[in-house]
Amino acid sequence: MSMKPKATTIRVSVATRDRLARIARQEGRAMTEVLNEAIADYEQKLFWQTVNEQIEQTQRENPEAWEDYLAERRLVLGRPSRARRTAPEWEGLITFPEERNDTDPR
Known about the structure:
Elements: H1 14-27, H2 31-61, H3 63-77, H4 82-85
């Protein structure tokens, strides 16, 4: 016996149905697949929007906690490597402040 997922009907405008059908046809997929992916993308967008709002709220309302977070992050992750900070075409052309010494003219 196959366990087919339950289905239901939702009301959408004809224009929305046609847009969904066009996208599904262009990609060679079922409309349900396209709709499920769109919903998952939207949920991810909402998640990151909430995370960003919470970060901004913490920075604004509790700067001390934000600084504690940054210090702990630096402790765990360490200083960013040059490879992550400098594009290859700039390598050797930039000296970061923490890398400078008194004899370096740059």
